[in-house]
Amino acid sequence: MKFISANWLLTCDDNFEIIENGAIAFDEKIIDIGTIDEFQIKYPKDNIEYLGENSVIMPGLINTHVHLEFSANKTTLQYGNFVKWLFSVMEHREELIEKATKELIDKELSNMISNGTTTIGAISSYGFDMDSCIQTPLNVVYFTEILGSKADMIDTLFVDFQAKLKSAITHKSENFIPAIAVHSPYSTHPFLIREVLNIAKENKMAVSAHFQESKAENDWLNHSNGEFESFFKDMLDQHKSLTKPSDFLEQFKNIEHLSFTHCVEANEKELEQIKKLGATITHCPNSNRLLNNSILNISYLKDIPLAMGTDGLSSNNTLNMFEEIRNAFFMHTNLDSAALADKLIQASTNGGAKALGLNKGILKKDFDADIIAFQLPDRCNNPKNLSSSIILHTSKTTHTYIKGNDELNK
Ligand code: MCF
Ligand code: FE
Question: How far is the CA of 252 from the centre of ligand 1 (A)?
Fold first, then answer.
């Protein structure tokens, strides 16, 4: 059993309890949690390692949505407009995928560990990131993606999807968990959606989908016009949207661990449906900014659970979750800064675990010991300022424990 202590311990439980001078005992799971004083009485013979001045202990960060196969993009893709970006992905996809070698993906995963991430939801379009995801110490919920709207391609696409999913299932382990991603309502045929969701239900798999990411998507789904019209006509000879947003959402009933990424254009009715489905919204603020999509209206979400993701390097310059939530902190100017900071930290831990269906994200007895620690540059006098101090001053951790092992100090 290991014992560590710090000036501040954020449990990220549902009440966002913070313990000043906190201590935690763990092996693979969390065994006990309390104040340093309590621990000294309870465990008089054990060495409780103090992590230094202005130290903080909190749950590891959960990056609920990332596309590792696009990790080679730096300056290739066209930002500033969602449809132009999509065209540029189609044009450069082969070269980007080829450049995203195992070494490159491994390097990104190891950077994530240094940046305090302990779990990712990896959306896999091709399966080329599978070996890296199996070998990394990170916990990976591995989403095999289904994508394709052309009726004459459905059978081929489904066979290909089944083969990739089967391969993921063969490698299932405690820290590599197969799951299913539906790319989006505009790009995936309703037949494929129905079939893959049946598989998800039978196997109790987590499911994720991009939803209402851009105005172009909203116009196309509701009116079959807008910026997507020429895209579908020219690329796919398709003249009408295959589904309405609410019909798309209806298909996701009875999925236990469900998340929709982006949702920046979702209207009140769609948000109500998302809430009824018990789903989480995954917010990827950097990606929304770079593709000139809207800023998610967090107040509009009311009590829909929130998680955070970086999306891929196809629409971001970093996979560092601290940098992601720092940008979100500056972006949502209509919210009180301290309350927003708490919400973003909660969404990056507890919220991510809920979206992915994991026993993580909270420092509490019997939860997995995915724990990070770091030091703030100076004393924090008030727990009310702790989350914003963390978000403003942290990019890396000194300790990243995954199931009780410190992956930074081996
Ligand atoms: O979330 C962003 C933007 N929205 C949609 N798709 C992607 C994102 N980042 C990467 N993608 C992938 C997606 O999984 O790009 C491809 C899909 O395989 C786009 S479809 C040509
Ligand atoms: Fe994405």
Answer: 20
Q: What distance in angstroms lies between residue 210's CA and the mean position of ligand 1's atoms? A: 8
Annotate 239-257 with b (16+ C-beta within 10 A) or e (fewer): eebbbebeebbebbeebeb
Q: Give nearest CA residue, ligand 1 atom 5.
A: 210
Same domain, 72 and 54: no
Cα 83 vs. chain centroid, distance in angstroms?
23
Task: Give the count of domains, the chain.
Answer: 2
Q: What is the pLDDT of residues 81-109, one digit of tens each?
A: 999 999 999 999 999 999 999 999 999 99
Predicted confidence (pLDDT) per residue in 1-39, tens digit: 999 999 999 999 999 999 999 999 999 999 999 999 999
State the ligand closest to the CA atom of 91: 1
- Can you give the pTM of this predicted structure? 0.99
Give the separation between CA 300 and CA 143, rounded to whole angstroms: 28
Same domain, 274 and 307: yes
The 3-state DSSP class for residue 137 equals coil
* Catalytic machinery residues: 213
Domain extent at residue 324: 61-356
Beta carbons within 8 Å of 155's beta carbon, 6+ residues apart: none
Distance 79 CA to ligand 2 centre (A): 14
| Angle 308-311-314 from CA coordinates, rounded to 5° | 160
Helical H segments across 100-179, by residue range: 102-114, 130-135, 154-170
Which of 336, 356, 376 lies at the terminal end of a domain, its last residue?
A: 356
130 shares its domain with 163? yes
Q: How many residues does the chain have?
A: 410
Ligand 1, atom 21, residue with closest C-alpha = 90
